Structure formats: C-alpha cells, structure tokens
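User: Can you recover a sequence for this backbone? Please restate the input before giving your answer.

Assistant: Of course. Working from this structure:
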C-alpha cells in the first residue's frame, strides 16, 4: 500500500496525528513547506520531505513510495480550494486514490466565501478517489491556543458564537480517528462528523474555565460587527474578522447543535469532554 504522506503536519491537528502514527509504528512521511522547522519539531525519527500545495514541483518528491495521503490544508486561507485542487488532480494522475481529507463540520453553512471545504469534498467524490472525509467540530484546544491571552489576561472568551451550542472535540480524538481510518480497512467513501460528548454554549465554556482557573471568566457574547471592530482595532487583517465571524456564526445560528457517535464508532473510545481538555490545557 505504500507510505502515508501527512500534509499540514506542523499544526495542532497535524502534530497530534504524527504522534498517533508514531505510537502505532506506522510507515509515514511528513510533507512541509519548511523542512528545517519540521525536522526540528519532529526529530530524527520522522522523515520530512519538501512539500507545498502551491508549488507543483514539490509533488513528485513528496509522493515517492506513497500510497495514502492525509490532506490538511493551511488555516485561514480563502484560496484553499485553489491550493488543494491541483494536488488532488496530481494524485489522480499518479493513481494514488486513498485520501483522507480534513474538512469541517457543517462547512456548507459557512457562506459562499468559505465554500472551499465543500468544493474539495465534491472533487473527491466525483474524482473516483477512495476517500474518507473527516468533519470535526470546533476544537477544544482553541480555548488555550487561540483564546489563551483573552482568558488569562482579560478574563474573557471573545468569539461571536451567540447563544448556540456545539460539541467541542478534542484534537487527540480527531487524530485517533484519522490514524484509524488511515491504517485500517472499512472506511472507503465514508464521512465522519466528529464531535465531543456534550453540547455546550460559550457561556458554558466560560463557566468551565472559571471553575478550572478559580476566577470569573466571562463571555460578553459580541455581535459579529463588534467582534470585527475589535479585531481590526487590534491590528488584525480585515479579512480575519469576517472569516472568523462567518465560521463562528454557524454556532450562533444553531447549525452545529448536535452530537454524533462517530468518534466511538471508529475508535471504540468515548470522546473526551471539554472539561477534561481545559483541565489539561490550563493546569
């Protein structure tokens, strides 16, 4: 079957998958735009190859001896479809059919500007690929990784999520699912919607953070307009505020207020609660 090529390996989810594959002694390689950085991150035990979705000249070298590919595109990039699509075309020409794609839960509800996941999923389905699509919910680790400064320095969580609820999912659980579908049979043409074990609002998350930190963490529930104004005032590029507003509005508009048992069905393990991840990340 050949090696597994892991793209997007140096991000939060990619690193978690690499750890899973290492623990299972899987035959895999990492593709990265910054080979030196990736080698420093993973050490001598992981083979790193030059790879860039935007540079077709890197495709052949990255794919040598590869039979399966984990496709995880760069975050916060509105050109994701334009970046990933040519690589999928190349895989098709090379006869590499087995692709596991890292999408997002209810991506089709995020608006026309963020339709890249939907387009990529459609390309996989129409291109005679042996695909598995992962659609994870919002990551439990985002509170530490992206909201950590607000939480620890300002005592707030600040996303335009309204009063909607969501099944926050542990990145480690996503990686466990990804490793399982890459290394075992029975997942062809499957789409897995990955959620945590309970539906929580951002108000609920603020309460859990307050309990863990021993101080009051509030959720001001900003409107999308206020959220964008604050981000712009803080120096963030204008498109970031709109991007995140569109993403988080699927919580506010109650598009993700459901749970699935897909983590358990694939791995045989119950998903990790947000409380457990917060306790780990804010210890």
């Amino acid at each position: 079957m050949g090696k597994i090529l892991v793209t997007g390996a140096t991000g939060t989810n990619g690193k978690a998958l690499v750890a899973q594959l290492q623990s299972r002694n899987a035959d895999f390689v990492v593709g990265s735009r910054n080979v030196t950085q990736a080698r420093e991150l993973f050490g001598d035990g992981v083979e790193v190859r030059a790879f860039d979705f935007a540079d077709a000249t890197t495709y052949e070298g990255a794919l040598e001896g590869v039979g399966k590919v984990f496709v995880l595109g760069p975050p916060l990039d509105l050109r994701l479809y334009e970046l990933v699509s040519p690589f999928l075309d190349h895989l098709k020409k090379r006869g590499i059919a087995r692709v596991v794609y890292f999408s997002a839960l209810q991506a089709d509800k995020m608006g026309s500007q963020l339709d890249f996941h939907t387009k990529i999923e459609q390309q996989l389905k129409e291109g005679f690929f042996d695909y598995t699509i992962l659609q994870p919910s919002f990551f439990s680790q985002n509170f530490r990784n992206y909201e950590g400064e607000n939480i620890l320095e300002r005592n707030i969580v600040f996303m335009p999520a309204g009063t909607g609820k969501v099944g926050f999912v542990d990145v480690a659980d996503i990686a466990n699912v990804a490793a399982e579908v890459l290394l075992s049979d029975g997942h062809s043409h499957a789409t897995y919607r990955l959620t945590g074990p309970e539906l929580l609002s951002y108000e609920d998350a603020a309460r859990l953070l307050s309990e863990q930190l021993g101080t009051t963490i509030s959720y001001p529930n900003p409107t999308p307009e206020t959220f964008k104004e604050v981000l712009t005032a803080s120096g963030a590029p204008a498109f970031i505020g709109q991007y995140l507003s569109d993403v988080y509005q699927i919580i506010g508009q109650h598009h993700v207020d459901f749970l699935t048992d897909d983590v358990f069905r694939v791995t045989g393990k119950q998903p990790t609660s947000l409380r457990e991840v917060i306790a780990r990340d804010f210890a």
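That completes the design. Residues 80-94 form the longest helix (15 residues).
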